Amino acid sequence: YIYAKSGFDSTASTLAGYYLPPSGDKYVFAIMLGNHNMPWTKVKPLEDRIVAAVLERMIAEESEQNAAPHS
Asked: Which residue intervals of 1-71 are DSSP H helices?
């Protein structure tokens, strides 16, 4: 599960939350974009892409750890 909350004003945008994988671990993320001149319609998709990339990496690493033989 992924839980997140966003916020913004005229020059700053944030997205923060956490990811709860099946392993029971908890991963927390926060993205803050400030003092930018991009329109909101471009900032929010950028935040979404950043979070997606980070979570994809976390999921891949967790899959690799689960697939590795345990000693």
From this structure: 40-67
Rounded to 5 degrees, what are φ and ψ at 40? -55, -35
**For residue 19, how many other CB atoms are within 10 A of its CB?**
19
Please say whether the beta carbons of 50 and 30 come within 8 A: no
Tokens 């926060």, residue located? 30
Instruction: Say how far apart CA 15 and CA 54 lie, in whole Å.
Output: 13
pTM here?
0.73
Tokens 């690493």: give the residue: 61
User: Tell me: the pLDDT tens digits for 29-65?
Assistant: 999 998 888 888 888 899 999 989 988 988 888 888 8
